[in-house]
Amino acid sequence: MQKLKLLYEGKAKKVYETPDADLLIQEFKDDATAFDATKRGTIAGKGVVNNKISARIFELLDTKGVATHFVKLLSDRDMLIKKVKIVPLEVTIRNIVAGGMSKLLDIEEGRRLKTPVLEYHYKEDKLHDPLINDYHIRALELATDAELEEISSSSFTINEILRRFFEEKNLILVDFKLEFGRHKGRILLADEISPDTCRLWDKATNEKLDKDRFRRDLGNVEEAYQEVYRRVLG
Ligand code: TMP
Ligand code: ASP
Which of 36, 90, 134, 210 is deepest in the core (most CB within 10 A)? Predict the structure, then answer.
């Protein structure tokens, strides 16, 4: 499948049209940003790692009955996806307190939560993706009741599948972010699932093996991405 017009360029990916109006190509870049792109850099090899890890996870979810936008891997950095209209929500699931929740509620990172926490953030960079709840979403018509029910139940299902998957790779799934899109009247899981969008800690040492190494200048950023790649695909 060939790349036609560049449709959209984001912080970590480019999206191209293809000869099929229902399909797009998603290209993963090495560019990394944090804190609403006030921090910028590159992580060598990240695009390849995130493309292949995302593909592996989308395939896994597909076998478990979770509908995704993934069609197939095309090359090191490219995947073929179904064209969706993104629901303007970032859905975060947390198993262990870290990052935003640690700051919001002044809880030390690393506390295991009694039950998983689901957060919705309104996907709007200029507002810094503010935390909202299901009442905001319905009142502002960002998603219908039925869509929200599907998005939330699917997110918890994905958490159970991925928690087990990463555990087998000796990785703790601390938290992660999902995006969903509309395609021919259905809700599909979209975007990517990678060390950019998940917090993954080594099970034995709690070492951070995800984008926090870049966000927090912890060093060994490339090595962490390669280590997750090795464990997930090795
Ligand atoms: P947070 O603790 O900063 O809210 O992040 C929660 C999870 O979401 C974490 O795994 C990183 C991921 N995330 C993204 O994928 N994109 C983002 O823009 C942010 C802020 C977080
Ligand atoms: N939303 C962040 C950014 O601006 C990315 C992140 O922290 O993952 O660039």
Answer: 210
- With a pLDDT cut of 70, the percent of the chain lying above it is 100
Is residue 182 very low, low, confident or very high in pLDDT (cuts 50, 70, 90)? very high
The three-state secondary structure class of 111 is: coil
Q: What is the pLDDT of residue 1?
A: 86
Mean pLDDT of 110-135: 97
Instruction: Please report the atom of ligand 1 found closest to the CA of residue 121.
Output: 4
Element (H, E) at 79: strand 78-82
Tell me if residue 72 falls in helix, strand or coil: strand
Instruction: Give the residue whose CA is nearest to atom 20 of ligand 1.
Output: 35
Section 192-199 average pLDDT? 98
Euclidean distance between CA atoms 220 and 210, whole angstroms: 10
pLDDT digits (tens, 9 = 90+) for 130-146: 999 999 999 999 999 99
- Quote the ligand 1 centre to 38 CA distance (angstroms): 15
199 lines ligand 1 (CB under 6 A): yes
Whether 11 lines ligand 2, by a CB cut-off of 6 Å, is yes
- Classified as helix, coil or strand, 97 is coil
